[in-house]
Design goal:
The protein is mostly beta strands. Helix content is 8%, strand content 39%. The protein has two helices and eleven strands. Strands 1, 3, 4, 6, 9 and 11 form a six-stranded antiparallel β-sheet that branches. The protein is globular, with a radius of gyration of 21 Å.
């Protein structure tokens, strides 16, 4: 005689298993210059005149290995403080809205002291609250870069819609010149 087994004798167990399997998280990778493949949302850059699409930038001092960047693209932004010989930029920001419980942000880092200045100072916000900072002094290796560096990750967000902001440069207009070479982010 054919039997359905213990799982089908108690249908609430079967339904519970289906519900649990349906809650699997999916990672979505968003390139710095392409739409979110799931929602079509784009990463925002402010002020727009202070960010350069790396591939098309003719006056950027950071010359990265294009093949080492996700989708061969990146955005280059340099924060200049008030005490700089160049006009102060004020903080530069990258913004992105997503629905999830985790986010991971990846950049390339310049290792040189000058041309480009490899110092990086980034502050991270989720829903307008400061949630982290990344500060890195360069090693002084001229013309060298490191790629696919996780500058921020957060796996403990409440489920739902969130607004992420990366700020290049410190609060106000002080501090040091800071370079951000944004590559991509991943959210779940």
């Amino acid at each position: 005689m054919f039997t359905l087994g213990p799982l089908f004798k108690h249908p609430w167990i079967y339904l519970s298993l289906i519900t649990t399997v349906g809650a699997v998280l999916v990672n979505v990778t968003v390139d710095n210059s392409l739409p979110d493949p799931l929602t079509g949302r784009l990463v925002g850059y402010l002020p727009t005149t202070s960010w350069n699409a790396g591939v098309a930038c003719t006056d950027c001092t950071a010359i990265v290995d294009e093949g080492s960047m996700f989708n061969r693209t990146w955005h280059d932004g340099t924060y200049f403080p008030v005490n700089s010989i160049l006009p102060a930029t004020g903080p530069l920001t990258i913004t992105f809205s997503f629905n999830g419980t985790a986010i991971y942000v990846f950049c390339a880092l310049a290792l040189s002291f000058t041309s480009p200045d490899g110092y990086s100072n980034m502050t991270f916000y989720i829903d307008n609250e400061i949630v982290g900072q990344f500060e890195k002094e360069p090693s002084g290796t001229q013309g060298a870069y490191v790629y696919n560096i996780s500058v921020y990750s957060n796996t403990s967000l409440s489920a739902g819609e969130h607004n992420f902001t990366l700020q290049n440069g410190p609060f106000g207009n002080g501090g040091n010149k800071s370079l951000t070479l944004f590559d991509y982010l991943v959210y779940s």
